[in-house]
Amino acid sequence: MVRPAALLWDNDGILVDTEGLYFAATRAMLATIGVELDEALYLQLFLREGRGAFHLARERGLDEAQIDALRAARDAHYGELLQAGSLVFAGAAQAVAALAGHYRMAIVTSSERDHFHQIHRATGLLPHFEFALTQGDYARAKPHPDPYLAALARIGLLAEACLVIEDSERGLRAACAAGIRCWAVPSRLARDGSFAQAERVFDSLGELASALVDYPGPR
Fold first, then answer.
1. What CATH number belongs to 6-16+88-213?
2. Element (H, E) at 183
3. Which of 73, 76, 173, 175 has the fewest CB atoms below 10 angstroms from its CB?
4. Residue pLDDT, tens place only, 168-188
5. Phi (first) and psi of residue 18, to 5 degrees
């Protein structure tokens, strides 16, 4: 296995503990129209398929304007939940700092840009990364390959020179579709997903970081 030159990181569920907040905000808004979104359905629609859940509102008879308003209310509620306090996973700051001296690094996320910057306002993580791609920087979100293909173009490396770090099946599928190998640390919400396509699966970000620091090959 060739030592990667660059690490392409997912954000939500791998660096910051926000996936549960997004689930809570989406569930709360759908509940206002009588739609129940449990964790199993959230896993399927968001973390496997990557298509969201607002088609459930359409099935209840809401028109596009009403769905847009519901989605906007969800986004606003999610923004409020993001203000609760520190969102960085335990050990994430140490892992990122340890790896920054060995690899080029970037973030590739499905987060909206405003939410992304709100999340990282006080994390201290962004100086370790060359750039971050968010919604609007590519045509289609994960599990399509577009986000990671855009990252390859931006970082100027071939797929075989990079390694993706993901927490969800949706992100793993996006990396594989882009031809990039992937290491996974499944998040709590995504832990029941299929990670058979991952090159390696870890229980913690600390374990993954240790493996990358000790990765054989020239630095």
1. 3.40.50.1000
2. strand 181-184
3. 76
4. 999 999 999 999 999 999 998
5. -115, -15
